[in-house]
Amino acid sequence: MTGQNFKMKGQQTSPPGRSAWQVFCCSRTAALLQFFLLIVGLAWLIVQSADNIGYNWQWYRIPHYLFTKNAAGLVAGPLLQGLKITLIISLAGLFFALIIGTLTAVLRLSHSFVGRGLAVLYLEISRNTPLLIQIFCIYFVLGPALGLERLPAAILALSLFEGAYTSEILRAGIQSVAAGQVEAARSLGLTTFATYRHIILPQALRTVLPPLTSQAISLIKDSALVSTIAIYDLTMQAQAIIAETYLTFEIWFTVAAMYFAITFLVSLFVGILEKRLKLP
To answer: Of the CATH numbers 3.30.830.10, 1.10.3720.10, 1.10.10.10, 1.10.101.10, which one belongs to the domain with range 89-225?
Structure first.
């Protein structure tokens, strides 16, 4: 055998048409190195900005607003208490948004003229008006009439606002299901409810799960607006602490990290769920 045709066992070669530098740039090591350099660059930028503005950082005071320790053990501080309220509002809002979105999507696709008209009217109002105005209208207008307190009013506003976008995502997923499967379900004598439950929605979920995740993350971030009606969620607690201590950057950076942690966990959970469902 000639040296041109013989390759030593275990020898690694670059794919044809790609240089060694291109192979390295596509490797996991290069990706980790690029991420590390990005973090270092951001850290340097933050330090330089802090030096230029002459801000006196007091990070050592932040743990006190997360938790305190007494004879009974660890006690949640105002930021963790606000985080609890944010999670309650977000989870409840997401639950009702899915219900409202599903009903609206089904009405949009129904043969009822009244049902389609009501669904379109709700969608246009919700999507074309700011969430902040909707929160004010529901709390200050509908709240006294329906006897809604701050927390239920905030959950209702978030549910209606996010439900409009959720309905369009679900409608697209429902329409992606092959018409032949729906016809086959009807030929077997399945009712409309049974067809949606056993045939349409399980398949639509595989399509709409990624955009629904983005909508859930959007809902979590939008929940910060409920602080405008004096609900002591994470954002409101941060504003109260800043007004008292003037720890502006430390508190807001901490709050941003807490929001990031929540949304990252949601994305991670959905990523695992996608693999379990073997989504494309």
So the answer is: 1.10.3720.10
Task: State the Cα–Cα distance between residues 125 and 137, nearest whole angstrom.
Answer: 12
Note whether 90 and 97 are within 8 A (CB).
Answer: no
Weakest mean pLDDT among 147-161, 195-209, 244-258: 195-209
* Candidate from 116-125, 127-136, 185-194, 270-279 with smallest mean pLDDT: 270-279
Task: With beta carbons less than 8 A apart as the criterion, state whether 236 and 230 touch.
Answer: yes
Nearest to 172 by CA among 212, 218, 232, 134: 212
Residue with tokens 């048409």: 17
Q: In this predicted model, what pLDDT tens digit does every residue of 27-75 receive, in sequence order?
A: 667 777 877 888 888 878 877 776 677 778 888 889 989 988 877 778 8
For residues 108 and 171, the answer to whether their CB atoms sit within 8 Å is yes
Q: For residues 237 and 231, what is the distance between their CA atoms, to the nearest angstrom?
A: 9
- Secondary structure (3-state) at 25: helix
CB 167 within 8 A of CB 105: yes
Amino acid at site 259? Y
What is the helix (H) or strand (E) element at residue 67, kind and residue range?
strand 67-70
Query: In this predicted model, what pLDDT tens digit does every residue of 139-172 receive, in sequence order?
Result: 999 889 888 899 999 999 999 999 999 999 988 8
**Beta-carbon contacts of residue 55 (< 8 Å; ≥ 6 apart):** 249
